Amino acid sequence: MSGRRGPGRLRHFRGPGRPRDRRIPPVLALPAALTAAFAVLPLVYLVVRATEHGTGHAWRLVADTRTLDLLGNSLRLTGTVVAATLLLGISLAWLTERTALPAPRLWSVLATLPLAVPSYVMSFSWLSAVPAVQGFTGAALALSLACFPYVYLPVAAVLRGIDPAQEEAARSLGHGPLRTFLRVTLPQLRPAAAGGALLVALYVVSDFGAVSLMRYDTFTRAIHTSYRASFDRTPAAALSCVLVLLTVLLVAAERRTRGRARYARTGRGTARPAPRLPLGRLRLPVLLWPGLVTAAAVVFPVATLLYWIAAGSSATWQPGRLAATAWSTVSVAAAGAALTVLLALPVGIVAARYRSRTARLLEQAAYAGHALPGITVALAFVFLSVRYAYPLYQQYPLLVLAYAALFLPLAVTGVRAAVLQAPEELEEAARSLGRTPFQALRQVTLPLAAPGVAAGAALTFVVIMKELPATLLLRPSGMDTLATRLWTHTDDYAYAAAAPYALTLILIAAVPAYLLGHVLRRNSA
Questions:
Q1: Do 23-42+313-491 and 64-259+289-311 show the same overall fold?
Q2: Among 90, 282, 297, 524, which is least packed by CB within 10 angstroms?
Q3: What are residue 19's phi and psi, to 5 degrees?
Q4: Pairwise CA distance, residues 182 & 375, whole Å
């Protein structure tokens, strides 16, 4: 058999049907079903807990004027941050990819680095330098500066892939640069911008650290306050249900905004890069915009942290304790990432290799955590451990399990993408040589998908390392992470003591943030 692949060349390797058309083998179905059941536990908890005293009581809690105020605050903050990140992300992407901006690669890297600054670190740096910024203004500022890369990265990737002939044709018809951007370029950026805006909206709705430090009341802060203030968890569960509903509505709104329009070319287009718009006399004034954004999102937070470190002393922040906390953060994040990827493997493989109602149901169940913020997942595991597994309460395994439930969608997406890149025909060839489906999967597909799975595990590790609300509620007594130590010191206004933990967190997260931007640039080139 030659190495050439033509239509149907490998057809004789196929058995009674393609894997997508066959039943899911038990060796995959059983662990995938267990993972799906594990993923929906927090949702089951919310329903049971919220209706524990009757649906009427739950409705009164939801319909309370306090809930309406929280909803208004959350929507106001979300709308403001989404608008600001769209402005920042799209403008910076266009400047770095479509204009003759000096050192565009440098500005591209700098526009990615805010991913390494958690929202609560951004809030801490601004609040410690400008105390008057607290409240809505401070929360909106911190979240906008921390989240705009979620818009910048996909929009910049699309700009690098757009056929420049379309823009050139518009200019040849007499359209100026601005009109060309609005009529030709911007519509093609719409899906990427909408997807980035959805990520920003979901981040803002579920954020706890920034709004807590800035003393701005949203659902997440109110849920945490309710949990701490009363032994009755029904109010917190009812508020969490509203938060889940809000998340579902945001996802539906993003799909409606994106619409059914498709912006794909039928051919490969030109291989040359798009021409860059000369800036002329506007070069220096235009350069101020990315400079100001970088100064506010990267330089200012790092400079503030360095100032507080210099203002403190070794007695204030205790280098030994800092090292121990960093190790605790890395170790628990590694354990959480390992368990999350292990649980995600069967679901991701089923989603990539089988097309059936059962496969879709298992994948959708695994994504249940996508609609749940960390504080809601933490409340679910507190309830389950106290009621049914008390020895696990405030123990290390419970925290790792919560991480797995919270970030399972992220790992499933990574596994699914990696398995899809492994040629399905190789599995069929292995089965034609006598291998069982499990042996073909283990010996052929998983080795090919291993790099992609490892990349997903690394990303999950970084996200877990920065997680705050679930860690605050579930960490064992005496255990701290960089995020919890930072939050504790900042809550007590001990800025000099908090700064080393914040800077260490940024330094660790900066490496994957840079690599993420580099990989996206390489893949879209």
A1: yes
A2: 282
A3: -55, -30
A4: 41
pLDDT at position 12 is: 39
Residue of 482, 225, 217 lying closest to 379 (CA atoms): 225
Cβ(214)–Cβ(123) below 8 Å: yes
pTM, two decimals, is 0.76
For residue 524, the number of C-alpha atoms closer than 13 Å in the C-beta half-sphere is 19
Which among 92, 93, 269 is positioned nearest to 164, based on CA atoms? 269
Place of tokens 């410690």: 128
Tens-digit pLDDT profile for residues 223-256: 877 776 666 667 777 777 777 777 777 766 766 6
525: helix, coil or strand?
coil
Name 99's bridge partners.
277
CATH of 64-259+289-311, one of 3.10.20.740, 3.30.460.10, 1.10.3720.10, 3.30.1120.10: 1.10.3720.10
- Given a contact cutoff of 8 angstroms between Cβ atoms, the answer to whether 322 and 500 are in contact is yes
Q: Give the relative orientation of helices 136-147 and 149-161 as an angle to the nearest 10 degrees.
A: 30
Taking each helix axis from N to C terminus, what angle separates 357-366 and 26-50, rounded to the nearest 10 degrees?
Answer: 50
Per-residue H/E/C for 121-148 = HHHHHHHHHCHHHCCHHHHHHHHHHHHC
Each domain of the chain, given as residue ranges in start order, spans 23-42+313-491, 64-259+289-311
Q: Which of 470, 495, 494, 492 is nearest to 481 (CA)?
A: 470
Q: Does domain 23-42+313-491 have CATH number 3.40.50.20?
A: no
- What is the CB neighbour count within 10 angstroms for residue 497? 24
